[in-house]
């Protein structure tokens, strides 16, 4: 009886594996940032390196999965919609990004009077880490 149960478990596991392999699981959308020209792209795969406007090839960094949270690097002033805190690698302003969480995507429009960053959030965004120095000064639009 034990051998029949083991055989059943093995067959069931193989069946699940075969069925899962038959479905193509779509790639998730990721944020990619070129370290040279600061172009930000949402894509399922790494973008082509050809044709960087700064000359030569793009130098892409994968920041992470696209999501519903706004993160802002106060060094390079890049705004990213991400599922979690983006990778610190590849800041166009040198060394590592310094990310600040601004808030969840929503239906209220805000713009910082100092750095010009524009977001659609559920509530007033965090004032930390303005790219123009100090704190963001949010104006509701």
Please work out how many helical segments DSSP would assign: 1
Strand element count = 7
- Straight-line distance between termini: 71 Å
Strand portion, in percent? 25-35%
Give the overall silhouette. globular
Helix content: 10-25%
Taking the sheet with the most strands, its summary is: 7 strands, antiparallel
The overall average pLDDT, rounded, is 86
Secondary structure category: alpha+beta
H/E element sequence = HEEEEEEE
Give me the Rg, rounded: 22 Å
Uncertain residue ranges: 7-25
Question: Can you describe what's shown?
Answer:
By secondary structure, the chain is an alpha+beta fold. The protein has 1 helix and 7 strands, in the order H-E-E-E-E-E-E-E. Strands 1, 2, 3, 4, 5, 6 and 7 form a 7-stranded antiparallel beta sheet that branches. About 13% of the residues have low confidence.
Tell me briefly what this model is.
With 141 residues, the chain is α+β, with helices and mostly antiparallel strands.
List the SSEs and their pairings:
Blueprint: H1 2-22, E1 30-34, E2 40-43, E3 60-73, E4 79-82, E5 99-112, E6 118-121, E7 138-140
Antiparallel strand pairs: 1-2, 1-3, 3-4, 3-5, 5-6, 5-7
């Amino acid at each position: 009886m034990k051998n029949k149960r083991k055989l059943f478990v093995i067959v069931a596991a193989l069946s699940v594996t075969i069925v899962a392999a038959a479905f193509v699981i779509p790639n998730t959308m990721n944020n990619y940032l070129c370290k040279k020209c600061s172009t930000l792209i949402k894509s399922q795969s790494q973008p082509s390196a050809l044709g960087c406007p700064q000359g030569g090839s793009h130098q892409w960094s994968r920041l992470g999965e696209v999501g519903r949270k706004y993160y802002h690097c106060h060094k390079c002033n890049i705004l990213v919609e991400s599922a979690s805190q983006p990778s610190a690698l590849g800041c166009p302003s040198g060394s590592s990004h310094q990310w600040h969480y601004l808030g969840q995507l929503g239906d209220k429009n805000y713009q910082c009077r100092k750095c010009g960053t524009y977001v659609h959030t559920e509530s007033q965004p965090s004032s930390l880490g303005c790219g123009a120095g100090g704190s963001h000064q949010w104006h509701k639009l």
